[in-house]
Hints:
Elements: H1 3-54, E1 65-69, E2 73-78, E3 84-94, E4 101-108, E5 117-123, E6 128-133, E7 141-146, E8 159-167, E9 175-186
Antiparallel strand pairs: 1-9, 2-9, 3-8, 4-7, 4-9, 5-6, 5-8
Amino acid sequence: MDKKEIYEHLAKIYLDASVKKKKKNKNHQKLIQNFFLLSLIIVVVGSTYLYSTLSGNKQLSSETALYLQNDVSKINFNFDPAKKEIYTINLNRLNVGRFKALVFQARKVNPNDNLSLRVEFVSAFRERSEIYVRNISNKWQEYVLELPKFKKINDWSEMSSLSFTIEEWNAKEKNGVVYIDDVRLKN
C-alpha cells in the first residue's frame, strides 16, 4: 500500500463515519420534535376533558361576548325635580347583528322599593325599541334580554346607544339607587 491508497482509505473511513453521524442527529431531532408535539396534544386534550368533566358539562360550549361596560355604574334617582334618570352607553355605530342577547347585572339599594328598569336600544337610523325589566332585586341578579324582543329595530348593523332608564311612574319610592354591571352582548 502506498501513501495515496492509505490517504484514500482513511478519507473514506472518516467521511463515511461523519455522514452516518449527521443522519443519526437528524433522526434524533425529528424524534424529539414528534415527542414534544404529541405531549402538547395530550396536554391540551386532557385539560379540555378534565375541565368539561369538573364543570359538569358533557360538551364544551363557546360563548362570545362583547363587553360594552364592565365597571359598576350607579343610577342615583331623585324624582323631586326630574321625571326620569338615564344611564346611556354610546355604541358608536356598532354592528350588533351577530349577537343574540343583551346581558347585564343589576341591583337596587332599597329592598322595599318596587321598580322597573327601562332598557332601550337606538339605531343610527333612529329606530328605537325598549323592554322593561320588572322587579329589580336588591341582590345582584343577571338579566338576559333576547335581541329579537326589541321588535321595533329592523337593522342592527349600526347602533347608536343603549340606555337604562328609571322613570318616576315605574318606581314606588321617589329616590334611590340602582347599580348596573357587566353589560355585554353575547351569542
